[in-house]
Amino acid sequence: MKGILITNRYYLDEGMKYLVGRLIQSAKDRGVTLTHSICPVVKDLKAQIGQADFVIFWDKDVVACKVIENSGIPTFNSSETIRICDSKALTYLALAGFDCLIPTVFSPVCFPVSNNDDGELIKSAETLGYPLIIKESTGSLGMQVYLINNRDELIEKSHELRHTSHLYQKYVGDEKGTDIRFYVAGKTIAGACKRINTTSYTSNIAMGGRIEKYEASEQEKRLALDIASALKMDFGSVDFIREGEKTYFVEANSNAYFKAIESLGVDVAGQYIDSIIKTVKNNARKS
Fold this sequence. Notes:
four-stranded parallel beta sheet, alpha+beta, 13 strands, single chain, 10 helices
C-alpha cells in the first residue's frame, strides 16, 4: 500500500517536521510506503498523486483537497471536514444540536464599503458578560483569540475586526488557560491530555502552555467521539473546557499537532495510520 502525506508548501515548523517524520515511520512499521509532498498548485495535482492508494491531506487548502477527492483517491481528512473545522463559526453551526456549546454571538458580514453601525452588535455581545472572548473564525495556535475585559476594549476590537469573520463567546472555565484535548483516530480515542498555561488565557502549547495526562470519563470520551462523527473527522482533536459539572466544547481541529501528547507516551501517529489503513481496506472490499 502506498500513500502520500501532503502538507502546506509555505509552513514547516518543528511541530510539522515532527509529525511528518512520525507518520512516515509509523506507516513504514506497518508495511506502508508514505511519501511526503508539499501541496502543489492545483494544475499539478494529478501528476503529483499518481497511483497513490490514499492521501493524508495535512493542509487547509480546501480546493486542492477537493480536486484530490474528485480523482477518486481516498483522502484523509475530507475537504468538507477541513472546511468546517477551519471555521469556528461553521463548526458551531454544524454542532448546533449539541448542548455543550459555549454561549456565542456571531459577527454579521461587513463589507469594506459598508457604513457600519456596531451598536446592535456591541449590545448583543455584552449579554455574554465581562470578561468575554473574541475569536476570529479562522486561526491557528491560539493567535487569533482575544480576551476582552470591558466595553472600551470590546468596541475597539470589534471595530478592528469588522471586515473579518469573528465571534464572541462567554468566558468559561474553572482554571484560566486550561482545556482538555481529545485526539480521535477513526471511531476511537487515541489519547487525551490536559493543556495548561499559567501565563495566558489560551492553553496552546505554542503560546507557552504545558501538557499533562488526563484520565477521561467514558461520558467525556463519548461526547468527543460524537462531535468528531458529526464533523465526519477521520482524525484530529476535539477540545473542551470544564466549569463546575459542565463540559463546554471549544473547537475541533482537523490537523492538530501531536508532538506534545506523544511526549507522554501516547502513540497518536500509529493510531492515525492504523485507522487509515483499516478504512482504505474496508473501502476496497466494498468496491
